[in-house]
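User: I'm writing a tutorial on reading structure tokens. Could you give me a worked example: one chain, its sequence, then its tokens, then a sentence or two explaining what the tokens reveal?
Assistant: Sure. Here is the example chain.
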Amino acid sequence: MLVDMLKGFLVGVCASAPVGPIAILVVQKSLSKGHKAGFVSGLGASVVDTLYAFIAIFALAFAQKFIDAHQNLILLVGGAVLSIVGLSMAFSDPFRKMKSDGGSSVSPKDFGQAVAMGLSNPMAIFVMFTLFAFFGLADDAPHNWSVAPIILSVSTGSVIYWFSVSWLLSRFRKNFRMSTILWISRITGAIIVIIGIALLGQGLFNVIFKGLPIM
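And here are its predicted structure tokens:
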């Protein structure tokens, strides 16, 4: 079990490492608001990673059928969520609360944005399953609550990864001028909007031009 827990820890780290919308969000929060805000966003991502690890072990077949049956709805909703979050990042003032309280600030919104981003990309379930298979956990793990330590290890790996990334990024924020951080917020928000529009576009193309059902 100790070896499997170590593998689960590595799964958590590897699942968090790819650069995507959540990573961009953590970068933006860490640079504009500091380590705590970046880490809270990372915690939101860790919650989603833990949920997907649970699904990868207990309900992958069901999740796959659900995604296949509702692919266009997922594309439309996921694209809309990413676009809204990206617009919020691009047009908000990351220094507004800092000016009012004289320091970095953390809000539930930092956590909620990361959770929304993670849930808008359920294909990450299959990334998690691939990692489980790569580390030899998919076949050996029993489908009962004895796998709880493995799932906890996945969560721990994800949390430690985001803690380290947000801490390192926050160390560099003093080297950036406010105008630079503001532009980073604008650009990262725009990137997430583009990803969201791409997902929306694919979903609309499937529904309008291919005649595929939304649900």
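What the tokens reveal: Residues 97-103 have pLDDT under 50 and may be disordered. The radius of gyration is 18 Å.
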